Target: Branched-chain-amino-acid aminotransferase
Amino acid sequence: MPLRRSKVLVKWIFENQHKFQTVRCCSSSLRYKEQLEETSAAPELVAPAPTPNAKPRPDLTPEISFKYDDLRVSLAAPYQLQPKPEVEELGFGRYFTDHMLKIYYHRALGGWQKPEIMPFENLSIHPAAKALHYAVQLFEGLKAYRGRDDKIRLFRPELNMERMNLAAQRSGLPMFDGDELVKCISRLVQIDQEWVPHSETSTLYIRPTLIGVDPTFGIQAPDSALLFAVLSPVSAYYKKSRDGAVSIFADPNVVRAFPGGAGNRKVGSNYGPTIEATSRAEKLGHQQVLWLFGPNHELTEVGAMNIFIVYINEHGDKQLATPPLNGLILPGVTRRSILELASQWEDLTVKEEVITMNNLIELNKQGRLLEMFGAGTAVVISPISRVGFLDMDVNIPTMKQPAPVYQRVKDTLLAIQYGHIEHPYARIIS
Ligand SMILES: Cc1ncc(COP(=O)(O)O)c(C=O)c1O
Model:
């Protein structure tokens, strides 16, 4: 066929192809057939429709959890390896290592599939995936520390696993055996161990994430999910002001969490809506938001950290206090560790108690408020020297204490994390 005629024919077919379709997509009589076709043409993430009486595939792990023993590893080729940045350039979560962990869950295939470590790659995800629309997702944050003995340690990873499973339950995502995930993550860190900074001011941040990926708009428990973990070498999280502390802004018009909500779970939907308030605080010269709740302006958290104060109590003793876990507060691993460690220090009373803005202002006026600090994995400890509230500036003498509690807490945590002292909180993985 001469070239010109064939070009005309191709153009005609292109323009008229819709006329060849005998079935329109909304035809209800053919719905079942279409569903089958859609399923077979669906992308990789979608589980095939279950075939009645089909035998389970022999390589499936049980519904209850994936298993470390099933882990498959494919290493990056030399050309896929990324250059490692200098410690000074790290920032927070800007660079990623060479490998990642992926574990799919497909209810139709019996549940959790085999874990896989593979070269770092972008995800391919259906545009209707529930994680993208209804935040059916959760994440965690823990770190791998390179100790002075060159050994790599994790800090209480079992607590992150517990928190992950609680968040999964809240969002209808599949739960799993936390020990198995810690083993898979430990293997990932071992493979990328040269990415764990050779420095005690930097660490390798581990971000396990679980997302609902099935491609349907219904607000229901997802039938398919993806658990992945990526690693990022990090240094400082927050900018500090000149005195080494941060200034925070307490805006009584915004809340981070509410009773019956999911403020006590590490789900993405708690974080996106904090951005506007944080930007407003920054415009007013503060670094973070102090999250208040209720008519008494109770302190709940600061930024993405748990909040602590140190003050002289009515008996004249030094008291370390943090608000109780009342459903509005994320049960921080650092928070719990501080409470456990400091309650063994005889010169300090440790209490979980409600703290209101009025309490804080009164204690400060009476000269009894000594310190205020935030605590979390990303920052460890972040001393606070100023709180903006209504038209006031509450200046807190955190940086003026001769032997501040925040520093003692920080030194103790870092000593455990970097192996200066042997402690059951630290788990050597390499
Ligand atoms: C809202 C919030 N509070 C507190 C924390 C501190 O928790 P952790 O000590 O487990 O890092 C975090 C960090 O994960 C957080 O996002």
Notes: Residues 3-16 form the longest helix (14 residues). The domain at 246-428 is CATH 3.20.10.10 (D-amino Acid Aminotransferase; Chain A, domain 2). The first strand starts at residue 72 and ends at 73.
